Each structure stands twice: as C-alpha cells, then as structure tokens.
Amino acid sequence: MKRALNFNAGPAAMPAEVLQKAEKHWLNIADTGMAVMELSHRSKEYEQIHENAIQGLRKLLSIPSDYEVLFIQGGASLQFSMIPMNFLHENTSGNYVLTGSWSEKALKEAQKIGSTAPIASTKENSYRSIPQLSDINTTENAAYLHITSNNTIYGTQWHTYPTQLHIPLIADMSSDILSKQIDINQFGMIYAGAQKNLGPSGVTVVIIHKDLISQDNDHLPTMLQYKTYANNSSLYNTPPTLAIYLLSLVLEWAEEKGGLQAIEKMNENKAKYLYDAIDESDGFYLGHAEKSRRSMMNVTFNLADKEKEALFLQSASDAGFIGLNGHRSIGGCRASIYNAVPEDHVYKLAQFMKSFKRNS
Ligand code: PMP
C-alpha cells in the first residue's frame, strides 16, 4: 500500500491501521447494513461508538470521574470564544500566556467578550521559548489562566505547566494531546481540535472539571454553553458521527500501541532523529525553538542560507516529502511528526536532511 511521507501540520497523517479498519466496516458497521454516517445518532449502534470514544479517552488519559469529556464542533477556534463566554464574569479577567499565534488568537476572541490580561509573552524573542513558570503571575481577579501547550507554528512546547497559581488552568492541547502522559488534575479544562493526534477534523474534544460547568448561564446561546453538552452526553443535537467514530478507532490504535507511555517514547525517538540532524549540521540547519522548549510534535527550522532553503524545500518535495513548508505566517521549514507519522518516515527525512547538506 502506498503511504505518503506526510508531515502536514493538520489535518495530518492518520494511522494506516485505522484507515484499513474503517474501510473494512465502511459499508456495513456493526452488522447494520449501513455506513456509520447513515446511522441515526439515537441508534444503539451509534451510541456504542460514541461511548467507546468517551471511554477510550478516559482510559488513555486516566481522566478522573470529576471531569466531563465533551464533543463540540467549531474547532479549537470556537473554544477561544466559548471559554470567555462561559467563564468570564463581571470584575473577573481572563489571563493569557502568549506563546504564539494561537494564543494570540485565543486572547483576541476573549477581548471581545470581557476583560483580559496578557500576563506573560515570549513574542519579543520571536516565540522561540516559553515563559519561566516563576515569571507567571496571575491578576488578582483572574477567572482562569489560558496556555497553548504546544505551539504548532513556532515549534515550542510546555514541558511543565504553571500549576502553582490556584486558579483553573485551561490548555489548548490541539497539537499535543495524546502525545505524552499528563496529569489531568493539573487542569481545569483541556481542549483540542481532533485533526492532529485524535483523528479527522470535525470534532473538538473538551475535558472539563465538573465544577467549571456553570448551570446558570442561560443568557448564552444553548450551543455555546458547556452544560448543554455535559447534560446530554454531547448528544443534544447531531454530533459529527463519522469524526467521532474515527476518533474511537484512533483511541483503540493508541491503546494497542501500548498507551501514552509507549507513544511518548516513540515520539521522543522520532523528534531526536530530526533535532540531531539539525544540531549536528554545523549551523547548516538552524532550529527555531530554544532547545529546552523544543516541541516533540512540530520541528521548526531554517537553513542558514535562504537560497538553499528554497532549494531544500523543493528537493524535499520532489523526493516525496509532503508538508515541510513552515506556516505561511513565518516561512522556513516545519516537520509535523504527530503520533501517526511512522518512525521510518521521520528517519528517512533525517537522512534526507543529512544528504542534502552533504551535497550542497
Ligand atoms: N490551536 C492550535 C494549537 C492549533 O494548532 C490550531 C490549528 N492548527 C488551532 C488552535 C485552531 O484549530 P481549529 O482549526 O480546529 O479551529
């Protein structure tokens, strides 16, 4: 079976085994004679799929029983708005740590809703780093602290979280959820658009502490209240059934791979191939992120010589490597190496980088 060397940032590579399983059941799921997207979302067969996805997340991430797992549409971007709508009240402030374009966007949406404070930022050094935990001080009236756990565009990642502040910590984990073990208890809420480590686009996973789900915000549109999803198992209206089915298969696959401990190890190995290729290139390749803040998911780099950078990207594309251009906002090169990107594809890319350097 031909599989592309896919380093896209999202939508991104899916596990081949998941696609094969989906294909096997494509026309006939659970012996119904129907495809998943032909099932009623009120049928027992779909309800089982829906429950499998919730339980799969609960198991893999060891989600405690005082957290809800919700499926919402509108992408991670809608969460930028729902968070302040649901959690900001008069005289409180949404505190944001700015570590890249996505946290800037999250802040911008919150500014439309209520009062906010950008309490720390690494913009001054071109988002190469993450603030020191000791430099993060929340405002007195903070309702929550928002971070972006992995910065997809700049290639930086939080390796420890600011948990010392005694206010709910909310993390946009769109690009590193399921990439490593985390302690859910450190967070008030986690959210992630599915299209990187979880499956196809169309569903956003929200893991939220029950205490945060307000039961008295009826002034908000129904679909923008977390309680609508929590009180109805995310089945108040029609959920994105196909995306949730594929998510359930990705979760089964992750479990079969040995769970998050094993996946974390694989991700470390994969990232090491590329970071070694950068670090051992005598300055031919320049990593964007500070070493201690490097992302295990998005490896960002430039070539010292701009002309060679264009040639590198062209040659890589000619050699079949997909998606290596940096985000359109910053240029350069980026290899996204989410869970489903096979280790041998990453190894091939590292070899390609080395041979390109040798032949230049
Ligand atoms: N946050 C992060 C960290 C992202 O990487 C992205 C998408 N690349 C988004 C938010 C926006 O996600 P969506 O397209 O699902 O709204």
TrEMBL record:
Binding sites annotated in the UniProt record for L-glutamate: 42
Keywords annotated in UniProt: Amino-acid biosynthesis, Aminotransferase, Cytoplasm, Pyridoxal phosphate, Serine biosynthesis, Transferase
Domain of life: Bacteria
EC number: 2.6.1.52
Cofactor note: Binds 1 pyridoxal phosphate per subunit.
Pathway(s) of this molecule: Amino-acid biosynthesis; L-serine biosynthesis; L-serine from 3-phospho-D-glycerate: step 2/3
Ranges where the Aminotransferase class V domain occurs: 6-348
Residues bearing PTM N6-(pyridoxal phosphate)lysine: 196
Keyword Mitochondrion carried by entry: no
Binding site for pyridoxal 5'-phosphate: 76-77, 102, 152, 172, 195, 237-238
Localization per record: Cytoplasm
Cofactor(s) for this UniProt protein: pyridoxal 5'-phosphate
Catalysed conversion reaction: 4-(phosphooxy)-L-threonine + 2-oxoglutarate = (R)-3-hydroxy-2-oxo-4-phosphooxybutanoate + L-glutamate; O-phospho-L-serine + 2-oxoglutarate = 3-phosphooxypyruvate + L-glutamate
Subunit and interaction comment: Homodimer.
Family: Belongs to the class-V pyridoxal-phosphate-dependent aminotransferase family. SerC subfamily.
Role description: Catalyzes the reversible conversion of 3-phosphohydroxypyruvate to phosphoserine and of 3-hydroxy-2-oxo-4-phosphonooxybutanoate to phosphohydroxythreonine.
Protein name (Swiss-Prot/TrEMBL): Phosphoserine aminotransferase
Source organism (scientific name): Cytobacillus gottheilii
